[in-house]
């Protein structure tokens, strides 16, 4: 019996919850590794590029809000992405303290490679489930999402 199975066999909600968190962390780490290997991007950096691709150029504060992160954390990520040419920052014409962040062409290309690697990894992992298991998992996750909103 694996360590993961030992946690969930006969466990109550808290043990199942811990098992879920362990599995979710493992999935995130696997996706992160695949993105780093294919495109040199972590999942968190990929999310920054995804927001910019979807919404266009944003002020750093807007980007932080969209990501649900502290502005200082986003500023550091953006600086790193700028250093490697994936985003560009420009001063705001009305307020020179504000920076507008935009995705570069290289950023779009790198984002596409990262997303492809992430998609491949998720298909590999969740493709190991049969259609009934996927349907059940989808329903369980929807139920958890609803519980979080209460």
TrEMBL record:
<dbReference type="Pfam" id="PF01047">
    <property type="entry name" value="MarR"/>
</dbReference>
<dbReference type="InterPro" id="IPR039422">
    <property type="entry name" value="MarR/SlyA-like"/>
</dbReference>
<dbReference type="InterPro" id="IPR036388">
    <property type="entry name" value="WH-like_DNA-bd_sf"/>
</dbReference>
<dbReference type="InterPro" id="IPR036390">
    <property type="entry name" value="WH_DNA-bd_sf"/>
</dbReference>
<protein>
    <recommendedName>
        <fullName>HTH marR-type domain-containing protein</fullName>
    </recommendedName>
</protein>
<dbReference type="InterPro" id="IPR000835">
    <property type="entry name" value="HTH_MarR-typ"/>
</dbReference>
<feature type="domain" description="HTH marR-type">
    <location>
        <begin position="13"/>
        <end position="146"/>
    </location>
</feature>
<dbReference type="GO" id="GO:0003700">
    <property type="term" value="F:DNA-binding transcription factor activity"/>
</dbReference>
<dbReference type="GO" id="GO:0006950">
    <property type="term" value="P:response to stress"/>
</dbReference>
